[in-house]
Each structure stands twice: as C-alpha cells, then as structure tokens.
Design a protein that fits this description.
This protein has about 80 residues and is an all-alpha fold. It is built from five helices and no strands.
Length: about 80
C-alpha cells in the first residue's frame, strides 16, 4: 500500500477530515494533508511520530511501507535498465 493511501485510509477510519488531521499535526490549513494524500508531497520527517500517533499507525508499519515503496521504485528502475 502506498503511504498516501495508508494515511487517507487511516484518517477516514478515524472519522477525521483533512483539516482536522492537519491541525493535529500543527498545520493551519488542510493543504499539507491534501498534498500528502495525493502523492504530491512527502510526509515531513518531523511529522512522522505525531502522524503515526494521531492515526494509530505503528511507526514500524509506517517505516515498512516507506521501505516497500522505495524497493518497488528501485526494482522498476532496474527493470528499465535491462
């Protein structure tokens, strides 16, 4: 699962709007969460611990999703080079 999808899924499961999640993370508008969920922005590293806590995602699972995503991208680049 992509990080963006995981965040959106967990946010919706918690019954939170993008604005509510943004404010919980210390942002004043929903733009940051909107950009993250659309895949146009990466999660700022400083926001990861709070994001995981607010959404009830273990930091270990979150990091595994990042690793899996990166591994998929690397594999595709290797395959392109063959």
């Amino acid at each position: 699962m992509k990080i963006a999808s995981l965040i959106k899924q967990q946010r919706l499961a918690k019954g939170m709007s993008q604005l509510q999640l943004s404010k919980a993370l210390g942002y004043s508008s929903s733009m940051t969460v909107s950009l993250i969920e659309s895949g146009k922005m990466k999660v700022p590293m400083k926001a990861v611990p709070k994001l995981c806590k607010v959404l009830g995602i273990s930091e270990r699972k979150f990091m595994q999703e990042i690793i899996d995503s990166f591994q998929d991208k690397v594999s595709k680049q290797i395959d392109k080079g063959r």
